[in-house]
Amino acid sequence: MRYGGGGGNGDGATEPVEGPGSGEVLLNLALERFGVWLRSIVVCLCGALGAVSADAADVPLAVSLLLPAFIACCVRLYSLRRPSLFPLALLWASDAAVVVLAGLSQPVIGGDGAGVMVEAIVGISVVAFQYEWATRPVAGAALAALGAVVLVLGDVLHSPGHSPDLVPLLRMLIQVCLSRAAYLIVRALARAADRAAAVRAAARRETEVAAVRRATEREYLATLHDTASATLLMVSQGDGRDWSWLAPRARQDLEAMSAMPGFETGSVDLVALLGCVPEGEGRTRVRLRTHIEGPLVIPSGPGLAMFNGVREAVTNVARHAGVREAELRAWPEAGGAVVELSDAGGGFDPESVPARRRGISGSVIGRMHAVGGSASVTSRPGTGTRVQWRWHGQAGVSRAGDGAQTPGVPSRPRARVRHTADVRFIRGRLLHGTQLAVLLISLVWQFTISLRRLVVHQDVYRPAWAQTAAFVCLAAVAVLGAAYLLRGRRIPPAVRGWSLGSVLAVSAVCAFTLPPEQSTGAPDWAFGVVGWHALFLLADLRVKAYAAFLGAHVLFNAAAVFLFGAPTVTQWTVMGISTTASCGFQLSVAVLMSHLLQGTAPAAGTAAALEEELRTRERIHEDMQRDHKERYRALTATTVPLLVGLGHGALSPHDEEVRLQCGVEAARMRRLFAEGDAVSDPLLNELRACVEVAEHKGVTVDMAVRGRPGEVPVEVRRELVDPVAVTLGRTRSTARVTVVWTPRAVRVSVVSEDCAGGPGTGEAARAHGRTTVAEVTVERTTRGGSVWVEAGWRRPAVSGVDQT
């Protein structure tokens, strides 16, 4: 079971997804390839050595049995490349044919080499079957049972009249059980790695989705500030008598508000984009002197942020600078771009601009920070103003302000860091799993097969105590390794060095205290088990380190044999088959482990990263669509009708009621902009934003605050401030706003001396598309032209005890 982000539920929760994870899938694929290649190589090598050891008259018949087995192995290898061409039943039949043909060749070849060859081929094959058919254990178990039958049948046909030797059968059963157990251990840790990686990916996904939603929200608020809010504020102020610019601008504002944000993944020509900056109309027009050094092709994210920022800065020049001319320059710099707008107007002190004013903090600076760029405003009273935007190329992406990633600017450095961490985590889990599996094989093999051989052949060793001491030393190495691995810790380098030296010493002692004719034979308990102990010690190193150890191990045994004379051809054959079946198998397992750590882990990390990216994009797309619908629905009640009426001539800016409605909506938008500010008193901050809109229209507003501020939920703040925004928006000359805090409640009131008539505050709230909060009470009193409105909220009791 995998865990991923639940798309479409909108609550950020993760949902379980049935099926194996990428790590488990790739593990099964790697093990299948390993099993097929291992079995094919062993069949070829051991079959060839067995045919060489046969009598000349028996070679044709032996080849006639072994050649079809070789062909079946080739077919199985080809099926790895084209699995769709071969049904599973055919593959299972070819695997069974290899075992049967190898077993029937034992009585044909004859001699001691035949038994060793068949035991090696069948033993390695049934082990490999557990990996080839890892996801279908019944098929693997059936092939193992068939191998056991073939092994007994071959022994009976090879030695008629003698009871079959059950020791090889028992040894093969232990190998099969160990192979399955090793697979289950590694798979369990691979699944755990998949689950942990999926949980981490889901957490990252929620973080990225939240960051993109925050960035989209900022861009949405900046767009509202630059378009609808500015337009409605200008209408409410009654600026000028030439309103020819109003209708097309209102229609453009509607398009900007209704446009669905998407993933801008291409590039834009900044030269062409800056050529489209609107200069305004009539009294609000600013003539731009443009000097651009091209070409300037940059990603669309920073390109659009620069364009929108320049557009807002030009609007500020028209409204505040007192001049009707500005200079726009742009040039490339260090793989990025720089845009500069300057004017010779009255200037201002940037430090004195309140944080609630969005023209600089949101539309200019905030936009560039969101895409990994920067923006600066340089100005002093009487010296003009210079605004500069910089995008520093891809190097700037990772320095985005809060981690939010604007669509179209892929955060590759951060993605690489996450991918590296995922690969390291999966590799660590797979390494721990393979070490535990090899440790299990070492312990079980030593205390079953090797211990029996040591006890039965005590009279063969010269001296016996040396072999016993070597056995105890090897057991101590396994126990010491288990003490670290079972606690999930890595074996320290010093402990590994001493343990590896001890294993080499065991190999040398056992080789030189054994009669040469018994080397790799039944009394040689250490030859097949020493390599497993070294493997879990060297699992995290390169394969050549383990190959060097196996080379030294084989060299010790070969040297011990040659000290007592040259071996015969039969001895060479038996030693070759035994070396292939034990050391060759162990080396192949080391290669598999290296492949899992160096190939499967990165591939699993890449697959998980791609899946995470897809799920993240799906979540972002769904959440952005939902957020956009909710935002637009909140504007359709009042703001959209106003812009539609202004854009199509149904409403006139000369009408005082229209201007008053525009003032109310402008105040509501400014309150919305202030809602996300990080301030100590959000309620007072939002009220001041509404007061500033009224002051822009020439209204004189006095504001008083009494008591100690406390926390107020955002939904309650909206209901407390909205009556004030409506009343101030309809005030012509003077008003007074009062905020009274008590330990149990907060009250916000506004007194307007000459408030224009209009809908009540309750009706206005409903018209604005919101459901009022039940805990907020609103009272309204009208006397002539004066209006008094008070909104109050009483804190709920905590645990049934009223606050005092």
UniProtKB/TrEMBL annotation:
Key words of the record: ATP-binding, Kinase, Membrane, Nucleotide-binding, Transferase, Transmembrane, Transmembrane helix, Two-component regulatory system
Coiled coil: none
Lineage: superkingdom: Bacteria
MF-aspect GO terms: ATP binding
Chain ranges passing through the membrane: 36-53, 59-78, 85-108, 114-131, 138-157, 169-190, 430-449, 464-486, 498-516, 522-539, 546-566
PANTHER family with a match to the protein in the record: NITRATE/NITRITE SENSOR PROTEIN NARX-RELATED, OXYGEN SENSOR HISTIDINE KINASE NREB
Protein name from the UniProt record: ATP-binding protein
Organism: Streptomyces glycanivorans
Lineage, top ranks: Bacteria, Bacillati, Actinomycetota, Actinomycetes, Kitasatosporales
